[in-house]
Amino acid sequence: MRGLAAAKLGVPGGHLAYETAGHGPPVLFIHSVIADRRMWDREFAALAADRQVVRFDLRGFGGSTPASAPFSYVRDIEALVSHLRLERPCLVGSSMGGAMAIDYALANPEGVSGLLLAAPGLSGGFDPPFEPKELAAFESDEKKSTEIAQAWSKGEASRAFELLRDLWCPALKGPSLELFRTMVEENATEVFDSRSQGQAERAPKAAARLGTIRVPTTVLIGDRDNPASAVFARRIARAIPGARLVAVPEADHLINLSRPDAFDAELRSALRASSSERP
């Protein structure tokens, strides 16, 4: 990833690129699989004044090496938390980064102080029955995702990007749109081919265990996101005891980039709640 230095943590088969700054209660950011750690540029700089902030690239993204053998996202996060000696970090995850945050919290129930989940996915998804509106959202998502994959397989990179943007990030503009474009272009093999994600060990299904999460949790969803995301966000928020579901107007899938003001307000609220849970 050009122009952005990072430390490296050795993991089986390669290394993770990460950055840390500041001192205080730790916050760990996990990026979406249509981005890289740069999606957290603003938050990383802003929070370092009074917290320890950590961000990293998932396998194959940014400065991290692609997977060369089966691996676990949760074990990667555990390795980073252990290496940096983070004590009960608050996890902030976007999209599949949110799914990874949930998986980590389920595997380490005493190891987190709070969760902020922005348009989160969920390992294993949800089981039927689904309401008609939910089924329609899933069918639309599948159709549009297939169109993206077909454009990419035909070598139509520009069209694949525009279809991807239309599905996930129609609200981005200006510098945020250019950052998104750069991240997709520089991580295209991971974004479109799921090169490393295909090597990831399948995490246990999370749906039936969401009720065991006992830390302050906020779930965000944008009203301009892929409608399938709203299905996941609502169901996740209903299943986690005490979770707050916040609808963010004019936000798409990358909520912190499309509505930074609203995201920052919810981030500050989530961090205050997580601090109250610390011993």
Protein model, in words:
The chain has 279 residues and is of the alpha/beta class. It has one domain (7-276): Alpha/Beta hydrolase fold, catalytic domain (Rossmann fold). Helices cover 42% and strands 16% of the residues. It has helices spanning 41-47, 73-84, 96-107, 132-153, 157-168, 174-186, 188-193, 227-239, 255-258, 260-276, and strands at 7-11, 14-21, 26-30, 52-56, 90-94, 114-118, 217-222, 244-248. It has an 8-stranded mixed beta sheet with strand order 1-2-4-3-5-6-7-8, sandwiched between helices. β7 (217-222), α8 and β8 form a beta-alpha-beta unit. The termini are far apart.
Key structural traits:
single chain, 279 residues, alpha/beta, Rossmann fold, 8-stranded mixed beta sheet
Write the layout of secondary structure elements.
Layout: E1 7-11, E2 14-21, E3 26-30, H1 41-47, E4 52-56, H2 73-84, E5 90-94, H3 96-107, E6 114-118, H4 132-153, H5 157-168, H6 174-186, H7 188-193, E7 217-222, H8 227-239, E8 244-248, H9 255-258, H10 260-276
Parallel strand pairs: 3-4, 3-5, 5-6, 6-7, 7-8
Antiparallel strand pairs: 1-2, 2-4
Helix pairs in contact: 2-3, 4-5
**Helix percentage range:** 40-55%
Average pLDDT number: 96
Radius of gyration: 17 Å
CATH-derived architecture: 3-Layer(aba) Sandwich
**What is the structural class?**
alpha/beta
How much β-strand is present in the residues? 15-25%
* CATH homologous superfamily identity: Alpha/Beta hydrolase fold, catalytic domain
Order of helices and strands: EEEHEHEHEHHHHEHEHH
Helix count equals: 10
Q: Biggest β-sheet: count, sense, barrel?
A: 8 strands, mixed
The total of beta strands comes to: 8
In the sheet with the most strands, the strands line up as: 1-2-4-3-5-6-7-8
CATH topology (level 3) name: Rossmann fold
